[in-house]
Amino acid sequence: MSGQSQRLTVVPTVTMLGIMKARLVGATRGHALLKKKSDALTVQFRQILKNIVTTKESMGDVMKTSSFALTEAKYVAGENIKHIVLENVQTASLKVRSRQENIAGVKLPKFEYFTEGDTKNALTGLARGGQQVQLCRAAYIKAIELLVELASLQTSFLTLDEAIKTTNRRVNALENVVKPRLENTITYIKGELDELEREDFFRLKKIQGYKKREMERQLASAKQFAEEQVAEKISLQKGISISSAHTLLSAEGGKDEDIIF
């Protein structure tokens, strides 16, 4: 039962053997391509993981600098600087857009920030603390840049992780299930075809032996018939000779007047 489950249920014919060989070639080619895809995704995955670690390390320093800059701006310009900034901002000048990057057939989302329009808060903190406000703004722009990059890397990380798992499952299925099953099926078909060929060969040998014996029997019968014909002809010739001799003797055995006795 286990051997039956390790091969496909097919009719062992030459046509089916060709089909199974073609499927095995396709499975082997697909396995090689998926293996290369898995390797390429793994390389990209490790590179993204390395970038995530580096970005997170930088993120800690940038966020610390940004927090210090905000505290300094509040200290110099006062606690109301936050409300002043919010009142002067109508629309966001920094925006994030997304795009897709194709790596080995896998579409990875990429995020990037861009500046839209002119900044209208150049005069914020003009009374006092203007320099600290601008430094705080620059620090948080740097933080936003790293946050967008980190979000892009982590999203790509999760997408690649799922793609690698799916690809590896397909590779393992082809390597451990599909290819062995096709190979076992091909072996089974070849064995059945060889068995049929041996049976046909044995049948032909048997038929040839029967024909040979039949021919020998016919030759023997013909030879025996010819010998019987020859023997019958000879016996007929002998019979004619004996009859002639008896006829002559009978004729000579008649009474001859010239013979005294």
From TrEMBL:
Similarity annotation: Belongs to the V-ATPase D subunit family.
- Which terms in the Gene Ontology molecular function aspect does this entry carry? proton-transporting ATPase activity, rotational mechanism
Keyword DNA-binding part of the UniProt annotation: no
**Name of this protein:** Uncharacterized protein
Pfam family of the protein (one) = ATP-synt_D
Q: Which UniProt keywords apply?
A: Coiled coil, Ion transport, Transport
Top-level lineage group: Eukaryota
Q: Which residues cross the membrane?
A: none
InterPro entries, alphabetically? V_ATPase_D
PANTHER family, from UniProt?
V-TYPE ATP SYNTHASE SUBUNIT D
Q: Which residues form a coiled coil?
A: 179-232
